[in-house]
Amino acid sequence: MYKNIKNYLLLVILFSLLLLLGCEKSVPFDQGDIIATIGPQKIDWKHLQRSYELTPKWGKGLTYKAAYRNQLDFLIDEKLFAQAARSEGLQKDPKIAGYLDYILNRI
């Protein structure tokens, strides 16, 4: 009887370990892969990850995929607004110039 329970527990532990190892998050892109192009500006996977971790733009209850999608949408909107500001000549304003330069020239 104890031998059957022991074998059963061993099987459950092995299965649990395999399950945990199989559930590791996989990175869908390499660090340098370009995942979005907005005019001449680009967003790569590393930029998206940094933004996701440092300035999150997602809410509680989202899936991992939906949270990254929200973050990517934010970065795209940010670049579009910066391009529009530049086309309106706002880069001449010293209060805005540094911020626009930062948004448009980072990758």
What this model shows, in words?
- This protein has a two-stranded antiparallel ribbon.
- The chain has one domain.
- A hairpin with a 2-residue loop joins strand 1 (34-38) and strand 2 (41-44).
- The chain starts with a helix and ends with a helix.
- It has helices at 2-22, 45-54, 64-87, 94-105, and strands spanning 34-38, 41-44.
- The chain has 107 residues and is mostly helical.
In short:
With 107 residues, the protein is mainly alpha-helical. Helices cover 63% and strands 8% of the residues. It has one domain (28-105).
Overall geometric form: elongated
User: Which sequence of SSEs, written as H and E, runs from N to C?
Assistant: HEEHHH
Q: Strand content of the residues, in percent?
A: 5-15%
Mean pLDDT comes to: 79
Trace the largest sheet across and list its strands: 1-2
Question: What helical percentage do the residues reach?
Answer: 55-70%
Structure characteristics:
single chain, 107 residues, mainly alpha, two-stranded antiparallel sheet, elongated
List the helices and strands and how they pair.
Layout: H1 2-22, E1 34-38, E2 41-44, H2 45-54, H3 64-87, H4 94-105
Antiparallel strand pairs: 1-2
Helix pairs in contact: 2-3
